[in-house]
Amino acid sequence: MRADLDALRIEMERERAKLRTLQEIGVLLGSTLDLNELLTMVLERISDVMDADRSTLYLLDEDTGELWSKLAQGEHVHEIRLKVGEGLAGSVAKTGKSLNLKDAYQDVRFDAEWDRRTGYRTRSVLCVPMKNQHGRTIGVVQVLNKKDGGWFTREDEALLGALSSQAAVSIENSKLFLSVVGKNIELLETQEQLQKKIRELDVLFEIAQVSAGAMELDELLQGVLARTMRAVDAEAASILLADEVTGNLHFRAAVGGEPKKVQRLQIKSGSGICGWVAKHGKPQVVNRVDDDVRHSRHISEEVGYHPRNVLCVPLRWDDGDRQGIGAVELLNKSKGQADFTDDDLKLATVIAGHVSTAIEQARSRERREREQRLSALGQFLSSVLHDLKTPMTVIKGYVRMLASEEDQEVRQQYVDTVLAQVEILDAMTRETLAFARGDRKLWVRKVYLYKFFEDLAEQLRRALGDRMEIELELRDRGVAHFDAPKVQRAAHNLARNAAEAAAALDRKGTFRIVVDRREDGALLLRFEDDGPGVPEAIKERLFESFTTHGKDEGTGLGLAIVRQIVEDHGGEIAFESEPGRTVFAITLPQSADGAITSSGDRAAAS
């Protein structure tokens, strides 16, 4: 009787221990979402509660379709992989049914290779599937060798089944948690990459704005360089361009470090890391410049700036009939505390493409401006040579009269007239030189209308008197402000055109000048002739350069010069023409104080 009570007491104590272990397993399963930690705890408690010598928990790898376990209880931890359907655990995973063997060696599905390799002797085996809430098998729990030397009972089978179901829920939760964490990490990484790309796009947008707004190439390069340096967190940066003749690199722009010192330096073609990049057209990231034989240490010593790492990308652009080369250099990532990355290289390469395009456009613009300047200078010289005829004709006529005139007073008048024409020639020379320098100014002065137009009419009579009657009507005899030599040139051109047109009629024509004032103070000049009129074929393009009709020696520049003079004064010119009457009307605006309102630069007004 006592023996039976002791046995019952031992059995009750064992059941209490199992119950406590089950409680612990329940608490532990809810205490962590870390999968490895969860598997370790489950295996330790399952061995205790099942009174088994060893236990193994297999999980189904959905990617490979294999069972795997990295946490096999015992002295060593090994990774075990089984195909579904292979071995005892694989068979349970395939069928979804429990397997309880008293002697594993009696079952053909048992693989004794593991026993032979480890020296372990497997006897009794209990395998139960782990199924999730949808009834899908996610793994297998296997316990080996009942410690009392017997085999696993139906109660053990039910208990392990309950434990496996509880473990399956926790494992699914852990997987879900890890999946969510993984997705969150991916989202954070994606967000970080997106923010980085946005920062890069912001930099590229800023560079585009700088490129659009910069008036000079140096201003553009300096602005691009500062933004590039900020984008890759560099401490210093520079842009080097190769000389067209020597091929040596010179620092066109520099930011950070010692910019004033480096801009005085040149790097020989192919020398240093930048020279190598510019010559070979290949980008380079050198995060340990002291270990690179191409590093120009003498430049570092000369400027007193010692870079730790360098990112350098080439520049290439079409420069007329040759290819321009250069390089963008970035120094010291995070003040030398970090290395330049592939992302930095990619961004710098994209920016270098924008810089190359900007340089190409700037050089192309400079070439166009030079060509336009030369073309404009050529046209200007043509107009000057065209207008030289008038003062030369006047000078020639008065010099001839000087030779035969004996009256000293009259001779002095002739001399004064010749000197005035020489002054006009001198003004035209000065104007030509100023134009060549890019300086096109009006020499605006106070002009007494009576004297100016009386002298003009007299000059025209002397020059064209054998072909034209010159008439002058001064409705306003006051003062105005304009560039007298240029207005005089305009009048001579109009009169000469009228005389050439009248010559075709084989008669002497009439050229009439009318000077008047508009209510708002603007000066009104009318130049009328009684010639054959402007041909219909050229009316639409009358004021364009090289427009002429029916003149053997005509250049087609006269009226283009007149229009340019009027527009430089901020004025307007219009014409009416019919056979027997042509009128050119010129308006020169005057401000309230009498000074001309000019569309060009005004040198002075007095």
Short recap of the structure:
The chain is α+β, with helices and mostly antiparallel strands. The chain is 48% helix and 22% strand. Strand 11 and strand 12 form a beta hairpin.
What would your notes on this structure say?
The protein has a six-stranded antiparallel sheet, with helices on both faces. Strands 9-8-7-12-11-10 form a six-stranded antiparallel sheet, with helices on both faces. It contains 14 helices and 21 strands. The termini are far apart. It has helices spanning 2-29, 35-50, 87-95, 113-118, 154-213, 217-231, 259-262, 272-280, 297-303, 342-404, 408-436, 449-464, 484-503, 558-568, and strands at 52-61, 66-69, 80-83, 99-101, 125-131, 137-146, 234-242, 249-255, 266-267, 284-286, 310-319, 322-333, 441-442, 445-448, 468-474, 479-482, 509-517, 523-529, 572-578, 581-588, 601-602. The protein is of the alpha+beta class and 606 residues long. Helices cover 48% and strands 22% of the residues. The mean pLDDT is 79. The chain has three domains: 17-180, Beta-Lactamase (2-Layer Sandwich); 212-369, 2-Layer Sandwich (Beta-Lactamase); 440-602, Heat Shock Protein 90 (2-Layer Sandwich), CATH 3.30.565.
Quaternary organisation: single chain
The low-confidence runs, each spanning 5 or more residues with pLDDT under 50, are none
What's the CATH C level of the largest domain? Alpha Beta
According to CATH, the homologous superfamily of the largest domain is GAF domain
Radius of gyration based on Cα positions: 50 Å
Beta-strand content bin: 15-25%
How many distinct domains? Answer: 3
Total E-strand runs? 21
By DSSP (H or I, 4+ residues per run), the number of helices equals 14
- Broad structural category: alpha+beta
Main sheet: which strands, in order across?
3-2-1-6-5-4
- The span between the termini is 142 Å
CATH topology group of the largest domain: Beta-Lactamase
